[in-house]
Design goal:
66% helix
Length: 340
């Protein structure tokens, strides 16, 4: 009978053959790992690459695009001035719209039924009426109110002025865009505020912090994380929505492009000019939105991920360090025992 000392440990060579034991037929370690083949995914990727290549080839070779005309007008003085008007309309409507929308949001969150009803009615009406209808209405305000004045309600008017002298074409466009934007901004702000835990306000009230300071220093900074993504999309939509003011003959980007191609008949390249500018402006707003969101996420993410610029700088440093190591001469090692 063999003693226990004669039993070889697992994986050790057997005394008889001196070879390692063969794994069992159903041993998982003996199975060969084969990567999965995603043939449908490969076919879809090839199809997409072919379609994108065809589209880029058409952009480069189709003479209808008229890239020379595009280059002549994309930075022309007329188009640049129209872009400036578009930016002005976007900035005015964004600032005023979100200010009014914040007031409406807190009116809806108020305990006063009167304030709640007025705010809800405003949002309901201005979200129901298309923007182009509102713009045309404000453009023709003088037909409804020839003069605007100040005085006693339902009593005498002490001062009045012609409505056309106060609300011009640009003013009517700003008013229409602002009132339309405020209805959507109110719901965006309200959604961000109700996303904040009620315990935050209870703790602030227990510390004796005034109500207005609670909103300004506690609620809004936390609500901004929920507000910013939707608000960014809304501002980008407003930038493109300013093209609707062409019905008021305001020289914004789309209207000016229409005027130019109405004179020379180059419709496609001029529409491409407008498209290129809208893409550039939207990209800039997207970059600004990214950094603003990153700033307000500092409370939740103490170590935020690096920005694209930081990643690019890190990659550049890595490449420079690798190039420096490659350029260094190789010093041969001395053999052991050589004292020279």
């Amino acid at each position: 009978m063999a003693s226990t000392t004669d039993i070889a440990p697992p994986g050790a060579p057997t005394p008889a053959t001196g070879r390692e034991p063969q794994p069992a037929p159903h041993d998982p370690a003996s199975l060969k790992v084969v990567p999965a083949r995603h043939y449908a995914r490969w076919a879809a990727a090839v199809a997409v690459i072919v379609l994108v290549t065809q589209f880029v080839h058409g952009l480069a070779t189709n003479p209808v695009w008229e890239w020379g005309v595009f280059g002549d007008y994309v930075l022309s003085e007329t188009i640049v001035q129209a872009v400036w008007v578009t930016l002005q309309l976007t900035a005015y409507a964004t600032v005023l719209g979100f200010l009014l929308g914040t007031v409406l949001a807190f009116m809806r969150l108020s305990r006063s039924p009167v304030l709640q009803t007025v705010a809800w009615t405003y949002i309901w009406i201005f979200r129901s009426i298309p923007m182009i209808v509102q713009l045309v209405f404000w453009f023709n305000l003088s037909a409804l109110y020839e003069r605007l004045g100040l005085g006693v309600p339902f009593g005498p008017v002490f001062w009045s002025v012609d409505s056309n002298s106060i609300i011009g074409t640009m003013g009517a466009a700003v008013i229409g865009l602002t009132l339309h934007q405020a209805a959507y901004a109110a719901e965006i702000v309200r959604g961000g505020v109700i996303a904040v835990d009620d315990g935050q306000l209870e703790a602030a009230a227990a510390l004796g912090i005034p109500r207005l300071r609670q909103i300004r220093r506690i609620v809004l900074p936390q609500a901004m994380r929920a507000i910013l993504p939707t608000a960014g999309n809304e501002i980008i939509g407003l930038l493109k929505g300013t093209s609707v003011v062409y019905v008021m003959s305001i020289g914004e980007l789309f209207y000016q492009v229409q005027v130019v191609y109405g004179r020379n008949g180059r419709v496609i390249p001029l529409l491409l000019v407008a498209t290129a500018w809208y893409v550039v402006l939207t990209s800039l707003l997207s970059v600004a939105q990214y950094y603003v969101e990153r700033r307000y996420a500092r409370g939740a993410n103490r170590t935020p991920p690096p920005t694209p610029l930081q990643r690019a700088r890190r990659l550049a440093r890595t490449l420079r360090a690798a190039a420096a190591r490659r350029d260094q001469p190789v010093i041969p090692l001395k053999p052991l025992g050589d004292s020279r």
